[in-house]
Design brief:
- Helix 5 packs parallel to helix 6 and helix 7 packs across helix 9.
- It is built from nine helices and ten strands.
- It starts with a strand and ends in a 5-residue tail after the last helix.
- It is globular and about 45 Å long.
- It is of the alpha/beta class.
- A ten-stranded mixed beta sheet has the order 5-4-1-2-10-9-3-8-7-6, with helices on both faces.
- It binds adenosine-5'-diphosphate and magnesium ion (MG).
Length: about 260
């Protein structure tokens, strides 16, 4: 793969709280190439969401810096889209109005961008639902609508924080398949945080394992499957899937 699009350099984060200082992230560095899909796994509370918020520019680290396309960021970047566990669709807005929200907020609601949003809805099978309200859609479709809203502002990098963990297992498998194919089809770079080892292996080119808080990188695993037209479900059936799973499981300190 080619040039680095994201560079995380010596990130450290200490929160100040009434009960004193919380050392959330110790010293984390890694780079992501254009088009790569990276997962970050680690024990609950180890600092995964904190790290993703720092990469998004929403949270300022107490140490280190983030480069996007070789530029240091000090605030949120238009190149970065953020997708969370809850889809945060507004119930009183139609799907189309929800999809336009990011464009409205960034004051880019022009004819060209509206047409692009409609095109995304059409390409990804939600056009017929554009005038429906979120409550009229299934969990999977809502998640797809949330992704389309994120894509509508044309980010190069997608950050996903436990984006599927609110869904039941079967839906989750289907949505993972769906979201993965959209991300690949749109040639996006992705950084996903999850506590689900299988999910991370099935979607990623590389899995980064963090230690307990304060987070440090414990190990990095390059994931390679010999399957043409890779999809998350196919990867789960690949012979070496278990091996990756066992290696990462051992690293995860789940038994403390
Ligand atoms: P994860 O996503 O891996 O579960 P988080 O990044 O949410 O972990 O949190 C890491 C640690 O930092 C936790 O101990 C959490 O309680 C603490 N933390 C998170 N946000 C704040 C905050 N705004 N103020 C103080 N402590 C926080
Ligand atoms: Mg979290």
């Amino acid at each position: 793969m080619s040039e680095n699009i994201v560079s995380v350099q010596n990130i450290g984060m200490k929160y100040q709280s009434i009960n004193g200082e919380i050392n959330a992230i110790e010293d984390v560095s890694f780079s992501v190439s254009k088009g790569e899909f990276i997962s970050i796994v680690g024990p609950s509370g180890c600092g995964k969401s904190t790290l993703l918020s720092i990469i998004s520019g929403l949270l300022k680290p107490t140490q280190g810096r983030i480069l996007i396309d070789n530029d240091e960021i000090n605030t949120t970047s238009e190149k970065v889209g953020y997708m969370l566990q809850k889809d945060y669709l507004f119930d009183w807005r139609t799907i189309y109005q929800n999809v336009l929200l990011g464009l409205e907020i960034s004051k880019k609601l022009n004819a060209e961008n509206k047409a692009y949003a409609l095109e995304l809805l059409r390409t990804y099978g939600l056009y017929d639902f554009k005038d429906k309200y979120p409550s009229q859609l299934s969990g999977g479709m809502r998640q797809r609508a949330a992704l389309i809203r994120t894509l509508a502002v044309k980010p190069e990098i997608l950050l996903l924080d436990e984006a599927f963990s609110a869904l039941d297992y079967q839906t989750r498998l289907a949505v993972t398949e769906d979201i993965y194919s959209i991300i690949k089809n749109e040639n996006k770079t992705a950084i996903m945080v999850t506590h689900d080892i299988s999910e991370s292996i099935s979607m990623s080119d590389r899995v980064i394992v963090l230690t307990k808080r304060p987070a440090l990188i414990k190990s990095t695993h390059a994931i390679k499957f010999d399957c043409p037209n890779r999809t998350p479900l196919k990867c789960r059936e690949a012979p070496n899937f278990r091996e990756y799973f066992n290696n990462i499981w051992k690293e995860l300190d789940v038994h403390v």
